[in-house]
Every structure is written in C-alpha cells, then in structure tokens.
Amino acid sequence: MTPITEVEGRRLALSNLEKVIHPATGTTKAELLHYYASTADAMLPHISDRPVSFLRYPDGPDGQMFFTKNPPPGTPSWVRTAPVPRSDDKNARQVVVADLPSLVWAANLVVEFHTPQWTQDAPAVADRMVFDLDPGAPATVEECCTVALWLRERLSEDGFEAYVKTSGSKGLHVLVPVRPTPSEEVSAYAKSLAVEAEASLPRLALYRMARNLRPGKVFVDHSQNAAAKTTAAPYTLRARAEPTVSAPVTWEEVEARQELTFRMGDIAARLERYGDLLAPLTDPGQARPLP
User: Fold this and answer.
1) pLDDT in the model for residue 107
2) Tens digits of per-residue pLDDT, 88-102?
3) Chain-centroid distance, C-alpha 125
4) Is the pTM of this model over 0.70?
5) CA separation (Å) from 245 to 85, 112, 169, 224, 271?
6) Given this model, what pLDDT does residue 103 score?
7) Residue 1: per-residue pLDDT
8) How far apart are CA 94 and CA 130, in angstroms?
9) In angstroms, rounded to a whole number, what is the distance separating the alpha carbons of residues 4 and 85?
10) DSSP the chain
11) Among 36, 66, 218, 284, which is 20 to 30 Å from 57 by CA?
C-alpha cells in the first residue's frame, strides 16, 4: 500500500520508500525525500521561479535514465506549470517547483533538477550566467579550480561577482548574477571569456567542444547560457552510484584545490556552517549589466 503523507496541506502518495536508489551507499528513496525536505529552504529560492527539466532515474543510476521537460503523467493539479514554447510544441508547458509540496512530489519521481538561466516570467532573458568547467581525464577538479579562479578574476575586471558550486559530477559551475539580458547576448559574452581563458591558459583551458582536444584539459562550457539549455540546479542530487550533490563551495575551498566532492549527508552541516553560499544569485541587487 502506497503511504499517503501531508505536506503543507497537500496530500502526497509516496511510493517505494525502501527502494535503494544509490547502490554504493545503500541510500534509499526515503532518505532522498528527507534530504530534499530538509534542504528546501536553501534550494527553493534557486528553482521556484524557473521551469524545471527532470533527469529521471527511478531505478538508480544503473537503470534507465531519461530527460523530460514536459510535466510527467499524473502531475497534480496544484503543481504549477508555466508556458515554455518550443519549436516542436508552441503550447508546451513545464513544471515550476514553487513550494515544498511540489519539491517533495518531484523528488518522489527520483530526478535531477535542471533549470535554465532565466525565469518563467522572462523566457530567454537571462538573469544569471554560468560556466560549466568539465575536466577531460587525466585532468581533475584540481585543474577546474585553476580555471575557476582565472574566471573569477576576469569577471571581476568587468564588475561581476562570481560564485561557485560543484557540478555533483566531475567539475565545477561558476555562476554570475547579471542584470536581465537576452540570452543570446549573455551567451556571446560568456563565449568571449571562454575564448580568453583558452588563450590565457593554453595548456589547461579549452573553449571548443571537440572530443579529441579534451584529454588533460578543462572544457569551459559556455553553451549552457543558450535559452534552450539547462544546468543542474544548486543542491540537486546527481544520478551517480553515490548520492553526490551539486553543492555550493567557498572560494577558499577552491583556492585550496580540495577534492570538492560532497554527498547528501554533508549538506546539512555545510548549511549550518555557511548558510546558502549562492544566496546572492537570488538578490536582484547583486546583478550587474554586461560590459
């Protein structure tokens, strides 16, 4: 029998709570739901006004995984959706995870949360910029740290304050609040900095996506600023053997070039110690215009 629980007045059917989702640690679905419920105050400000896409992995990272932008079948009527017209569907809508009940409902589907760089009220008008630093073996997150620090200094020259989180996989995400600007303009500026990074760090940074160039270098992926692209949301769990998190980190941790891998069980203590390190991203007063 599927348990029914109530979250802030909404009744939710939570299924297969004892199912192991992350096999390396034996982490169950119930533990995933508890993680999201306890992290909601930090996570929701980053996703509550953006359409979300889901990477679903209901049978764990070794099972079937599929990416979906459409609201899943059975989405409750009280879960908000927003129009997100696409070339293949002018009437398309996507889920907006606006509150705790919606977050728990979505987490029950076993998903990674991905969002665009714009909000539901201003499609294709970015209010943040992202650089996804992806190391090509044998490069590691240590090399990503060097590139992230270069980006931080270069962005500072143009008046931007940068923030950083782990991808929850192998690399880092450098994030910047920007004054609302058409996504194509933010994309062009981000690409120009990625090109500069390769010119300044030719043995380390790479702005081109070609796979044959990747070994031993850090790909500075600027493409996620395009209006149609999304990035793993802050605090989302990733579909990996262990329940790793896309976790905010301090620049001091980046400078120390630490391992920078955080799991579900690490986040409560980090929030207690640091609060939400990415909170400035949600403050319009921190946004700066493109140069």
Assistant:
1) 98
2) 778 899 999 999 999
3) 18
4) yes
5) 30, 10, 8, 19, 13
6) 98
7) 59
8) 21
9) 34
10) ---EEEETTEEEE---TT-EEETTTTEEHHHHHHHHHHHHHHHHHHHTTSB-EEEE-TT-TTS--EEE-SPPTT--TTS-EEE--BTTBTT-EEEB--SHHHHHHHHTT-EEEEE-SB-TTSTTEEEEEEEEEEEPTT--HHHHHHHHHHHHHHHHHTT---EEEE-SSSSEEEEEEEEEEEHHHHHHHHHHHHHHHHHHSTTTEE----GGG-TTSEEEE-GGGSTT--EEPTT-B-SSSS-BB--EE-HHHHHTT-----BGGGHHHHHHHH--TTGGGG-GGG-B---
11) 218
Tokens of 210: 């070609």
Torsion of CA 281, 127, 245, 214, to 10 degrees: -120
Cα–Cα distances (Å) from 237 to 65, 168, 228, 259, in that order, read 14, 7, 22, 18
Handedness of CA 69, 73, 77, 79 (dihedral sign): negative
Q: Which two tokens stand for residue 214?
A: 């990747």
What gap in Å lies between CA 56 and CA 236, rounded to an integer?
Answer: 12
The residue assigned the tokens 């996507």 is 94
Are 249 and 164 contacting, i.e. CB atoms less than 8 angstroms apart? yes
Which residues does the chain have with pLDDT short of 70?
1, 87
Q: How far apart are CA 271 and CA 248, in angstroms?
A: 10
Q: Work out the burial of residue 53: count CB atoms within 10 Å of its CB; fewer than 13 is exposed, 13-18 middle, 19 or more buried.
A: buried
Burial (CB < 10 A; 0-12, 13-18, 19+), residue 30, is middle
Question: In sequence order, which residues have a C-beta less than 8 Å from that of residue 284 and are 6 or more positions away?
Answer: 127, 177
How far is it, in rounded angstroms, from Cα 139 to Cα 217?
A: 6
pLDDT at 151: 98
Contact 144, 132 (CB under 8 A): no
